Amino acid sequence: MLNLGIIGIGRIGKVHAQSITYHLKNAHVKAIADPQMNDGNRQWAKELGVDACYEDYRQILADPQIDAVLVCSSTPTHADISIEAIRAGKHVFCEKPVSQDASKIVEVMRALEGTGLKFQVGFNRRFDHNFEAVRGAVASGAIGDLHIVKITSRDPDSPPIEYVKVSGGMFLDMTIHDFDMVRYLSGSDVTEVYVNAAVLVNPEIGRAGDVDTAIITMKLASGALAVIDNSRRAAYGYDQRAEVFGSKGQAAVSNDTASSVVISSENGVTGEKPLYFFLERYMDSFSKEVGMFVDAILNHTEVPVNVNDGLQPVLIALAAKRSMLENRPVKLSEIAY
Ligand SMILES: NC(=O)c1ccc[n+]([C@@H]2O[C@H](COP(=O)([O-])OP(=O)(O)OC[C@H]3O[C@@H](n4cnc5c(N)ncnc54)[C@H](O)[C@@H]3O)[C@@H](O)[C@H]2O)c1
Questions:
Q1: What CA–CA distance (Å, rounded) separates 337 from 327?
Q2: Among the atoms of ligand 1, which is closest to the Cα of residue 123?
Q3: Which of 31, 104, 109, 238 could form a disulfide with 79 if both were Cys (CB 3.0 to 4.6 A apart)?
């Protein structure tokens, strides 16, 4: 049994605490920490069987019975907390992105060197049953040599403007998952990015210096090409589809729906809308990713999403930002860190 501490108990910290408690037999949430700890959180934690609630995460790091931590706090805190946790001898599961600053991720890499500690990044979409099957079709050679990766990724609604202002921009906050998906599905690194982007959903997002709609094309080290289309608002819900195309065929995945029923009547033929957002669509993936982190620690095996997998999408996002600002293709090798 592995004892875990969760640092940051907002939206995603709570998802992990619940999925560990309800789905993992070999891990226990021993403590949670959040500077915003309140009676509601304490009561919620008690009902979940969590032993201790702290305001300061350093109390988790000081507990010798805690083997590993999940860093689920706000993005700007991830890298420094991860480094402190590594120095305290804890394995780390860090939510995405590890940092918006690539050089901070390199600091995390350096802190890990020679420690033997596990460090996994929270790119949960890799553990979605559909995307795993698409990756399987590429890895097995079923579609032959990969030529094109196409990802559609549209949120059901734009986030609050206060969130947009501190998010680091759409590419580092939202598209980062899609950049990871391009690497995961293709099994290849990205070498060059070109972006067309616009503000079409909410003018306030533009006033905050960000975009809400984008078409991103990429060249991969393997020679294949990739395209992502993003919107902060799809009127019909969370639109997350992927297609890989190769010399022998293609593999595609559509949206998950609450049911697959199709109703036909004199008015037309209708089906379910996509599941509303990531909590509805990807719930299983959250317990699966942490399950694999726990297994990697207990069985001394490699984590499935390592620190370099955390770094690469950030480099792609930074190249995408530069491509948008300079209106030209940007090579990843241009991004200094
Ligand atoms: N993998 C995913 O699909 C996914 C989904 C949502 C969020 N995230 C990531 O998870 C992180 C948190 O997002 P969220 O939506 O839960 O945000 P949130 O604002 O709901 O929660 C963040 C929590 O961190 C706490 N916090 C801030 N500084 C802290 C510190 N020093 N120590 C401990 N706690 C601290 C805040 O008080 C807050 O309760 C972000 O980096 C985000 O990108 C990932």
A1: 22
A2: 1
A3: 104
The alpha carbon of 10 and the centre of ligand 1 are apart by a number of angstroms equal to: 5
- What is the model's pLDDT at position 250? 98
pTM greater than 0.85 (yes/no): yes
Specify the residue with its C-alpha closest to ligand 1, atom 5: 12
Does the pLDDT at position 166 exceed 90? no
In this structure, are residues 332 and 193 in contact, taking their beta carbons and an 8 Å threshold? yes
Q: 73 C-alpha to center of ligand 1: Å?
A: 4
Residue 279 predicted with pLDDT over 90 = no
In this structure, the number of other CB atoms found within 10 A of the CB of residue 107 comes to 16
Mean pLDDT of the 62-90 span = 97
Distances (CA, A) of 32 to 70, 73, 106, 144: 9, 11, 27, 47
From the CA of 123, how far away is ligand 1's center (Å)?
A: 14
Residue bearing tokens 């037999």 = 25
Question: Which residue ranges have their beta carbon within 6 Å of ligand 1?
Answer: 7-13, 33-36, 57, 72-75, 77, 95-96, 122, 124, 278
Q: What is the overall mean pLDDT for the chain?
A: 96
222 neighbors 139 (Cβ within 8 angstroms): no
Residue 167 — very low, low, confident or very high, per pLDDT cuts 50/70/90?
A: confident
Instruction: Compute, in angstroms, the gap from residue 247 CA to the centroid of ligand 1.
Output: 42
Tell me the three state secondary structure of residue 308: helix
CA distance 237 to 273: 7
Report CA 161 to chain centroid distance, whole Å.
Answer: 21
pLDDT band at 49 (very low <50, low <70, confident <90, very high): very high
What is residue 88's three-state secondary structure? coil
CA distances for 223 relative to 27, 42, 218, 228, 323, angstroms:
42, 52, 10, 17, 20
Span from the CA of 34 to the centroid of ligand 1 (angstroms): 10
